[in-house]
């Protein structure tokens, strides 16, 4: 997606490290935004970043999911995948991830059948619909009104539109998934704490994010295609993921970086992680 050039310094606000509560030091100037790194824990984040109201405006834009892999195959007027879209390379990748991620979750749970699955950042609901088909009782949360409406009206899914902290959810989920979501949230520590409060003590948390220690990120700097400073306001590494999750009472137990793994197929700059509740935390 090309970034709209409409944002100015007035749409931005300064941010601090969500772990150490200190400002970052500048890595890249991408005015009106900045890519900064925490001097204490090395978490990379965007500051100044878009104000929350501007961010909501961005996610409500009907065009937000289009052009990206999440919107491909979903036409914006009736929400029905076109024959062309269904077999597009992006849609095939989407199907590979979905199948790979459902299989990963099954393996992590030792083959235990079904249960309750929550997806945070459900987008148009394609993963949730596949999970429901695989026998899960599904719930979703999605910030974009466009995405949530499609998931609710076209796919008949139970999706709450808003931030996770505000969602009326019954805790004790067997699985909580957050695919390409943690890099978008205002505060990852409070995000993972909410996830921790919702997952069962023997449950599994599965997520994906881009990572800033990946080869493309390191080689390309400001030309890294996933930098997107309007939307991706936190940039993690496996190490900072582990720090953040631990602060929220979750242990990072698996990291999948290979672009050959179905759950992460074709993704050179992203990882899939698995975390579990730390008992008593
Ligand atoms: Zn820090």
UniProtKB/TrEMBL annotation:
- Which processes are annotated in GO (biological process)? methylation
- The keyword Transmembrane helix is annotated on this UniProt entry: no
Cite a single Pfam family from the UniProt record.
Answer: Methyltransf_23
Q: Any idea which UniProt keywords this protein has?
A: Methyltransferase, Transferase
Q: Does the keyword rRNA-binding apply?
A: no
GO MF entries: methyltransferase activity
The record, for Gene3D superfamilies, names: Vaccinia Virus protein VP39
- InterPro entries documented for this protein: SAM-dependent_MTases_sf (IPR029063)
Specify the protein name.
Methyltransferase domain-containing protein
């Amino acid at each position: 997606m090309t970034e709209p050039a409409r944002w100015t310094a007035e749409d931005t606000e300064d941010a601090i490290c969500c772990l150490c509560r200190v400002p970052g030091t500048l890595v890249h100037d991408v005015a009106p935004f900045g890519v900064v790194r925490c001097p204490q824990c090395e978490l990379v984040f965007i500051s100044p970043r878009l104000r929350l109201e501007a961010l909501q405006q961005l996610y409500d834009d009907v065009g937000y999911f289009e052009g990206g892999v999440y919107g491909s195959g979903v036409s914006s007027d009736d929400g029905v995948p076109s024959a062309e879209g269904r077999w597009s390379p992006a849609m095939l990748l989407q199907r590979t991830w979905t199948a790979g991620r459902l299989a990963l979750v099954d393996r992590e749970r030792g083959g235990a059948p079904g249960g309750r699955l929550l997806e945070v950042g459900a987008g148009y609901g394609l993963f949730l619909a596949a999970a429901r088909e695989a026998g899960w009782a599904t719930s979703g949360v999605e910030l974009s009104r466009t995405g949530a409406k499609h998931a609710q009206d076209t796919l008949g899914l139970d999706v709450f539109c808003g931030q996770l902290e505000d969602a009326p959810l019954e805790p004790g989920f067997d699985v909580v998934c957050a695919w390409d979501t943690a890099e978008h949230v205002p505060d990852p520590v409070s995000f993972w704490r909410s996830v921790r409060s919702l997952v069962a003590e023997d449950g599994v948390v599965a997520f994906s994010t881009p990572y800033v220690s990946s080869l493309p990120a390191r080689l390309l700097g400001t030309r890294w295609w996933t930098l997107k400073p309007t939307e991706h306001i936190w940039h993690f590494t496996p190490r900072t993921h582990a720090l953040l999750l631990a602060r929220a009472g979750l242990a990072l137990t698996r990291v999948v970086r290979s672009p050959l793994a179905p759950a992460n197929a074709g993704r050179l700059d992203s990882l899939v992680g698995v975390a579990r509740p730390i008992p008593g935390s």
